[in-house]
Amino acid sequence: MRCFRKRSALPVLGVLIFCLLFMNLYIEDEYVVEEDKRLRDASTHQLNSDSYGNTVREFSNFSSINVTYQILAGIPIARKRFLTIGLSSVKRKKGNYLLETIKSIFEQSSYEELKEIAVVVHLADFDLTWCESIVQDISRKFSHHIIAGRLAIIHTPVQYYPVLEGLKRNYNDPDARVKFRSKQNVDYAFLLNFCANLSDYYLMLEDDVRCAKNFLTTIKKVINSRKGSNWVTLEFSKLGYIGKLYHTHDLPRLAHFLLMFYQEMPCDWLLIHFRGLLAQKEAIRFKPSLFQHMGYYSSYKGAENKLKDDDFEEDLLDIPDNPSAILSTNMNTFENYEVNRAYSSAEEYFWAKPPSSGDFYHIVFEKPIKISKIKVSTGTEDRQNDILHHGTLEVGERLVGTKKNKKCTTYLRLGDFMNGNFEMDNIDRKVLFNIDCIRILVTKNQNEWLIIKSISVWTTETLNQ
């Protein structure tokens, strides 16, 4: 993991402007997009034997990434999974945490979750003796996962790498550091390129990470709660490029982007620019974090790296389900603090100008559900008076209206907000009908603005995802 330090943002400006211009042309160029799709669909895995095992040939998602991968262990994933987890690893001067990271991924996943996971390890060091040794270690310890087709190890030969010497010394970095971070960008580009067709979603991890229990189930709940909203990156850790989630259809473009600007800046900075270029201006990060940095020594010259995510919780016991729903309000929303921002565990919120009696925040579920618990928080630490001062929470049944403008015909009042908050357990024992709607209703005019920080819903049955 890269050690952070303060640097001036000014040298980035020129590069960013160029990125914006280029990506704008690229994204809007219909021919390029169609060609990308054609190449991705046409890519095939052809296996040939060599000293390292099997080789994938004619695998290319973009014409500029024409690379032959060596399969060091495992087989190309035959069945498309829900999630691919990508790890890129190089030899460290001190310590090696790769095996512990792989172990954590598998041990923190249930048998059912393992069916939906594929793990791809990219051994990105040019020392082939080291690669061979690591393959043997992984194969001995995780042979059953390799046989089950959920673990593969790949390598990209050195001849496919661009120039790594004499690069631009942006931010006044020494040559060795520029080479290290530039190669790291290429390492990840090749890994992303390989994983583009293996699953619906892709999770970027580092090779020195500990996972939270049942992290996949939590990720699926978050994805489900954001159905219908546009996002490029969801973040499940605040550190570097740990725990960054992508749609796999974005991977070819991201791989291309990393290769284009591999020598300009560190990978985590490029990832921020990438999601900004695809119109996600702000980070969408979830708490508690699902992944923790556990390495003590950096992969760069063995330097000490004690970075920790203080939002990490290894045993997540009470994560809300937040089933898929259509969200609406008649309040005067402030700027881009839209209605969907409250219905998640992300660090974001819904913000409206002073509401009046009768104003509402409405949640309509995709299908009727049984609810065990509801928790709503309003206001924030720095805006403690922007709470719902007078309001009730209701649940409803019997939907009427159009697909985009549904509402319930019958509502049952569960209770009032107290000091801006509402929380109730055992709702399924008090409400006998299946719930179609939740309505937060303002019962008195207020002069203060309103922030709905979070809405959490727990169901009595496991979601059918």
TrEMBL record:
Pathway membership, UniProt? Protein modification; protein glycosylation
* A biological process term (GO) from this entry: protein N-linked glycosylation
- Name the Gene Ontology molecular function terms of this record: acetylglucosaminyltransferase activity
Pfam families, A to Z: MGAT4_cons, MGAT4A_C
What keywords tag this UniProt record?
A: Glycosyltransferase, Membrane, Transferase, Transmembrane, Transmembrane helix
Q: Which residues form the MGAT4 conserved region domain?
A: 60-312
Transmembrane residues, as ranges?
9-27
* Domain MGAT4 A/B/C C-terminal: from-to ranges: 327-453
The residue stretches assigned to a coiled coil in this entry are none
Q: Which domain of life is it from?
A: Eukaryota
Keyword S-adenosyl-L-methionine appears in the UniProt entry: no
Protein name in UniProt? Alpha-1,3-mannosyl-glycoprotein 4-beta-N-acetylglucosaminyltransferase C
